[in-house]
Design a protein that fits this description.
Helix content is about 5%, strand content about 45%. It is mostly beta strands and about 400 residues long. The strands form 7 sheets. Strands 1-27-26-25-24 form a 5-stranded mixed sheet, with no helix packed on it. Strands 15, 16, 17, 18 and 19 form a 5-stranded antiparallel sheet that branches. It has a 4-stranded antiparallel sheet with strand order 2-30-29-28, with no helix packed on it. It is globular, with a radius of gyration of 23 Å.
């Protein structure tokens, strides 16, 4: 290009660069930065040998494993009032599946999610009126009845007084909440002793959680007054006195976010972060109605899934900069495995379908990879196209 042409092109190039810079600055200074459909997102189905049924699940960072508790509802199994509980370990690194047969049965497993890993690497679980410890080191199970001197036996067919949530505090005590109670139950392991901790006017229900908020804090969400139509309510406890304080947000679901905040969904279809001391909202965003057990956190990011026009959509949001990523699960009516593992972002859907009731839990591993745990059977099933695990890499 002649030197005169180069000189003439410089103002145009400079002006183009200025316009591009203005666009970048303008988009970065707005309230939110949203990437609608991530083309780099990748869904992968994972087939493991497991029966169909209601589940609970938890991630084990020490072993890099997903522990899945199942009350089988496979039509090929005998129809029993109480079902033998199955404990499955899926090792992410090696892709191994290990079955740990439990000697215990269950009538109501799946009404909540009560699983946690303690500092020793032992797995704690609760269902019905049982608190159970599994030691992976020797494969042993040990169980205790939850607060036997306080909780009455439930009526037949009722979920009242059945375990729905579990957490382990900094002193290694195990906390359990049950359906329809105005208290949380704290198990001091070394002394095999139960403590009853009042939640004030908060009554726990099947969809609610309990979580450790800090080195000395516990948060429990439920409903006010115990009525099924009552508004969601949050109770905050401090280990220095265990006196319940009411949180400011009407939290339907909660999860720990960092030392000073918890993530929540509320009764106005918002997802946000709240101060763990007083429950005051410090961040919120409306994304639509969030199903039960659809909220989790990792690395100070909030993960949640919702249903949009019959499709599962996973949102990952960062309250620190209000950035949100949105990924749609591939969907098509019908069966068949097809080329599902090649699905990226919003490319044409493959022959797969998943619905709200199928998803039992969403967890995120130490790499920041999300996993959807469903109620479907794995390789033991003759139904093609449905898997018990789905991995989402963003």
């Amino acid at each position: 290009m002649p030197s005169s042409a180069k000189a003439a092109a410089r103002p145009a190039q400079w002006m183009l660069g200025l316009i591009v810079s203005m666009i970048v600055v303008t988009s970065s200074c707005g309230r939110s930065i949203e990437r609608q459909s991530l083309t780099e997102a990748r869904w992968t189905p994972v087939s493991i040998e497991i029966h169909q049924g209601l589940r609970q699940a938890v991630y084990d960072p020490r072993r890099d494993s997903i522990w899945i508790l199942t009350a089988p509802a496979d039509p090929r199994l005998p129809a029993l009032e109480e079902k033998l509980v199955e404990l499955t370990e899926y090792r992410i690194t090696t892709r191994e599946t290990i079955q740990h047969r439990s000697p215990l049965t269950s009538r109501t497993l799946g009404i909540g999610n009560a699983m946690a890993i303690d500092a020793n690497g032992d797995l704690w679980m609760a269902w019905d009126q049982n608190l159970v410890r599994f030691r992976p080191s020797d494969g042993s199970f040990e169980s205790w009845e939850i607060a036997p001197t306080v909780l009455a036996d439930p009526e037949e067919g009722s979920t009242a007084r059945m375990a729905v949530a579990l957490a382990i505090d900094q002193s290694s005590a195990v906390w359990v909440t049950v359906d329809g109670a105005p208290s949380a139950y704290r198990f001091v392991v070394d002394e095999t002793r139960w403590e009853v901790i009042s939640l004030g006017d908060v009554v726990t229900t099947t969809e609610k959680r309990i979580t450790v908020t800090s080195s000395h804090g516990i948060a429990v969400n439920g409903i006010a007054g115990g009525s099924s139509s009552a508004a969601p309510k949050l109770a905050l406890l401090d280990s220095r006195d265990w006196k319940p304080r009411s949180g400011k947000v009407a939290a339907r679901q909660i999860a720990p976010l960092n030392e000073t905040a918890i993530a929540y969904t509320d009764d106005r279809d918002r997802v946000g972060a709240a101060n763990s001391t007083d429950g005051r909202s410090i961040y919120s965003r409306a994304i639509g109605k969030v199903p039960p057990r659809a909220l989790t956190t990792h690395g100070e990011r909030i993960w949640v899934w919702v249903m949009e026009e019959g499709r599962v959509v996973v949102h990952r949001m960062d309250p620190r900069n209000d950035q949100m990523d949105r990924v749609t699960f591939p969907h098509r009516e019908g069966f068949g495995r097809g080329s599902f593992s090649d699905y990226r972002g919003d490319a044409p859907a493959t022959q797969f379908s998943i619905a709200d009731p199928d998803i039992q839990e969403m967890i995120v591993d130490k790499r920041g990879v999300a996993w959807l745990v469903t109620s479907h059977a794995g390789v033991t099933s003759d139904r093609g196209g449905y898997e018990p695990l789905y991995r989402l890499m963003i």
